[in-house]
Specification:
This protein has helices at 14-21, 37-43, 60-66, 85-90, 103-118, 121-129, 158-165, 183-189, 196-202, 222-227, 245-253, 292-310; strands at residues 5-8, 25-28, 49-52, 72-75, 94-96, 150-154, 173-177, 192-193, 205-208, 233-236, 259-262, 281-283. Helix 1 links the parallel strand 1 (5-8) and strand 2. The strands form 2 sheets. Strands 8-7-6-9-10-11-12 form a 7-stranded parallel β-sheet, with helices on both faces. It has a 5-stranded parallel β-sheet with strand order 2-1-3-4-5. It has 328 residues and is of the alpha/beta class.
């Protein structure tokens, strides 16, 4: 029996590749970069499955290039806004993702950014490395207290709730806004469900944990930034376009808010002009899930999804389950 042929669009942890090779014939992108559009279209040709990344735009042209035998595209991510799920379903192609596994890692990074911005860690590190630290002074790199302050959480799903639970150690008042109240989260943390405007006006720190939808694009813009305290810190580890980056740059330049910490960007990987030059923002290259354990587990989940699909089973993390009731 011929083994399924699979394309992996970029190198992933070896433990996941090892498991995949036990079940499939595997071709891995040999370059330490994303595949070009031409390489992707050629690479998927004749494959039974594709393990893809958020940086890969998977649309009907890709499905057409892959061929009618293609059974699954397994996204190595929780989000799948890079994939045309509707077109995949019409072609009876399974789409899967890797939810749950990166909740802790992403919530941890949001806290790392919150501390880095609030206590001016990057600025102080650079100052010290450049040999400018000569003597301690009472006004040297003053930051903002975190313990006992008000934390605003936008989106109380898995990662937002995880982030909020970690705030208990800092004795913070927690406000949150969500599509609906999350009673379990409230019981665990004492968080209060409020409207968007109340959260923006009253929070000392605001962390965004939203999916990218038409309703969440530019969820934070000029109007929202104007509502925030001048001492507020804004953190985004969700999706770049939920913030109007042009408006954010203006707000940071004009010191309308204290600072921002960003793991994602509106036009990723490009930064909005002027953002990189600002000292009151910390920017990192989409590393929310970038721990050895988490990235390995993401790979193992994506591979397991593929193996289940090829075995005729329902993948654990199928995002278009209606396709399972259709026949090729």
């Amino acid at each position: 029996m011929n083994r399924p042929k699979v394309l992996v669009t970029r190198q992933i942890p070896e433990a996941a590749l090892k498991l995949l090779r036990q079940h499939c014939e595997v071709v891995v992108n040999p370059y330490d970069r994303g595949m070009t559009r031409e390489e992707l279209l050629e690479g998927v040709r004749g494959k039974d499955g594709v393990l893809c990344l958020l940086t890969d735009i998977i649309d009907d042209e890709v499905y057409e290039a892959a061929g009618e035998q293609c059974k699954i595209f397994a996204n190595y991510a929780v989000g799948y806004n890079n994939i045309d799920v509707q077109a995949a379903t019409k072609r009876r192609i399974i789409i899967t993702n890797t939810p749950g596994v990166l909740d802790d890692a992403t919530a941890d990074l949001a806290w790392a950014l919150l501390f880095a911005v609030s206590r001016r860690i990057v600025e102080a590190d650079r100052y010290t490395r450049e040999g400018r630290f000569q003597i301690w002074g009472p006004m040297l790199y003053l930051g903002r207290d975190i313990t006992g302050k008000t934390l605003g959480i936008i989106g109380a799903g898995r990662i937002g709730s995880n982030f909020g639970r970690k705030a208990r150690g800092f004795d913070m008042k927690i406000l949150y806004t969500n599509t609906k109240p999350n009673k379990k989260f409230e019981e665990e943390t004492g968080a209060m469900y409020v409207d968007k405007e109340t959260l923006l006006r009253e929070s000392d720190f605001i962390s965004i944990h939203l999916p990218l939808l038409s309703s969440t694009r530019h969820y934070i813009g000029e109007k929202e930034l104007d509502m925030m305290k001048r001492t507020a810190v804004l953190i985004n580890t969700s999706r770049g376009p939920v913030i109007d980056e042009k408006a954010l740059v203006r707000a940071l330049k004009e010191k309308k808010i204290w600072g921002a910490g960003l793991d994602v960007f509106e036009n990723e990987p490009k930064l909005e002009p002027g953002l990189a030059e600002l000292d009151n923002v910390v920017v990192v290259p989409h590393i929310g899930s970038a721990t050895i354990e988490t990235r390995t587990n993401m790979g193992l989940i994506a591979v397991k999804n593929m193996i289940q699909a090829f075995s005729g089973e329902i993948p654990d993390h199928c995002v278009n389950p209606e396709v399972l009731h259709l026949k090729k």
